[in-house]
Specification:
InterPro entries: Glutathione_S-Trfase_N, Omega/Tau-like, Thioredoxin-like_sf
Subcellular location: Cytoplasm, Cytosol
Shape: globular
Number of domains: 1
Bound molecules: glutathione
Structural class: alpha+beta
Number of strands: 4
Helix content: 40-55%
Radius of gyration: 15 Å
Largest sheet: 4 strands, mixed
GO biological process, one term: glutathione metabolic process
GO molecular function, one term: glutathione transferase activity
Strand order of the largest sheet: 2-1-3-4
CATH superfamily: Glutaredoxin
CATH class: Alpha Beta
EC number: 2.5.1.18
Distance between the termini: 34 Å
CATH architecture: 3-Layer(aba) Sandwich
């Protein structure tokens, strides 16, 4: 591997984002909890890249997760995807209790509305 080249695992998972965004932070925390290697592609605030516009044409916002080139938008949708794709032992939502998982999702989206992302 040449210097500066990313390992194959990180190349599979890219996050379009910025360190300054709590929504991006939520996605990075989820990936780290799962031990998933990823590459952060920094977006410049106020200047949206062509990749961002093509990957999230509906909202044109960060974060976007690119998994093997396929884009997923909205931080809570991304966290759920990460939880489903990368297996336990680390689990973000309760797997064996759909009611408990629904309550978690309720408070996650509600706290985002009230205070911004908590996780
Ligand atoms: N509901 C979205 C919110 C994402 C969001 O608001 N991202 C901001 C950065 S913190 C953004 O991209 N703002 C640019 C814009 O509004 O054009 C999520 O949870 O991912």
């Amino acid at each position: 591997m040449q210097s500066g080249e990313k390992p194959a695992a990180a190349a599979e998972v890219r996050v379009l984002g910025s360190w300054a965004s709590p929504f991006v932070m939520r996605v990075m925390v989820a990936l780290r909890l799962k031990g998933v290697e990823y590459e952060l592609l920094q977006e410049t605030m106020g200047k949206k890249s062509e990749l961002l516009l093509a990957s999230n044409p509906v909202h044109k916002k960060i974060p976007v997760l690119l998994h093997r080139g396929k884009p997923i938008s909205e931080s809570l949708v991304i966290v759920q995807y990460v939880d489903e794709v990368w297996p336990p032992p680390a689990s973000i939502l309760p797997r064996d209790d759909p009611y408990a998982a629904a309550i978690h999702r309720f408070w996650d989206s509600t706290s985002t509305t009230w205070y911004g992302p908590r996780v």
